[in-house]
Amino acid sequence: MTPKEEKSLTFRLKAKYFLCVLSVYVGVYFVLYLILSFIHALIYLNPYFRMVMLLLFFVVSSMITNRIMKSETMRSFVEIQPSR
User: Fold this and answer.
1) How many CB atoms within 10 Å of residue 74?
2) Phi and psi at residue 17, in whole multiples of 5°?
3) Do 28 and 38 contact (CB within 8 A), yes or no?
4) Contact 68, 24 (CB under 8 A)
């Protein structure tokens, strides 16, 4: 494989991985935001507590995304086989 093909393959792999991370992260964050909205609908949250809850959900969604992206299934999905 020439260096140009290798560079192209690396770029495609990074792009595909980035899109996977982004889609998983957005999905996880959206679900957690729906849960937060439901809690907010049940009880009134003051603004500072709401900011803390959003920050907490942001951290939790990042942790969940990391766990999903490190899984073996996601690794095999992201792999791009070089064409010969």
Assistant:
1) 16
2) -65, -45
3) no
4) yes
Contact 63, 32 (CB under 8 A): no
| Cα dihedral 66→63→59→35 (10° resolution) | 110
pTM recorded for the entire structure: 0.44
Task: Compute CA 8 distance to the chain's CA centroid, rounded to the nearest angstrom.
Answer: 24
- 59/49 Cα distance (integer angstroms): 15
| Cα three-residue angle 76-24-26, rounded to 5 degrees | 165
In SS3 terms, 54-71 reads as HHHHHHHHHHHHHHHHCC
**pLDDT tens string for the chain (84 positions)?**
677 777 777 777 777 777 777 877 788 788 888 787 777 766 666 677 777 777 877 787 777 777 777 776 666 666 655 554
